[in-house]
Amino acid sequence: MQLTSHKVLIFDVYGTLIDWESGIYNSLKPLFPNDTPREEVLEKYATAELDLQTKDPSVAYSKILDLVWVRLSGQANTNLGHGGGQTAVTEEGEGVGASISAANLDLAYESLTPATSDADRFGASIPTWQPFEDTVQALHRLKEHFALVVLSNVDNRSFGGTHELLKSKTHEASKSRYLTETPDSPFSLILTAQQLNAYKPDLRVLETALQQISSTPRSLLPHPTPPWAVEAREVLVVANSLLHDIEPANLHNLNNVWISRHEKNTIGTKSDLKERGVWTWRFETLGDLADAVDQEVKEARDAT
Hints:
Strand content: 5-15%
Mean pLDDT: 88
Order of helices and strands: EHHHEEHHHEHEHHEHEHEH
Strand order of the largest sheet: 5-4-1-6-7-8
Oligomer: single chain
Number of helices: 12
Radius of gyration: 19 Å
Largest sheet: 6 strands, parallel
Helix content: 40-55%
Shape: globular
Structural class: alpha/beta
């Protein structure tokens, strides 16, 4: 089995491509005593984030950050009482189970959280989180061989800012094996938690992504035109989070790549999953993955 036997790479973004832990920690550390370890701050964030996402998947990710700030600062009760249930996605692509519309959520939270508050600034900070130094070049190398798909626990507006950081004017669109969102973008399809009305590690998120690249995508969700008709065995999940991405990939019987980032990340790390070695391939950085792909391509070319 080779990396290049796959057609589509499904990417996690934050933690894999973007150094979100530095962005989160730098924003939250004023809430804690000076001697609080970075790992402890990030663990508290991760616990609060997962709890809020599970209780109401209809809440936009930037609003989740607002609420995490409020919870960790002890300012107010952030228990979400809207519906508390998991949100499903219908065959038509519409979320069900949400108890309040996105527009009403925006109005509700704007009334609760002033635009100038620290919580609001934290929620708005997502587009400022920076890529790892190897990310942009590696993505544009990989798009020469695969269709790159975003599957991210983020809202559309926040990812719009991140997307700009991952584009590159120096890479020719003609080098892309598949049509990308824009000529300078590495991505051929973008799927966010806001579009799917659900957050990873809910298994339905990855299930929906697989359907969107199949021969029968849901019409109301983003999908390639014409459909790619890609089969599961041709999909490779690429991610840093063992909890949110690698384990769901295993449960869907998908090959996967763990971008371990030298095991410095805290969010999404689970010791039992690490001990089980649940990944198909492991690379320290995305650049290492791109090197391995290039090597396979070179060997195949030399063999002909």
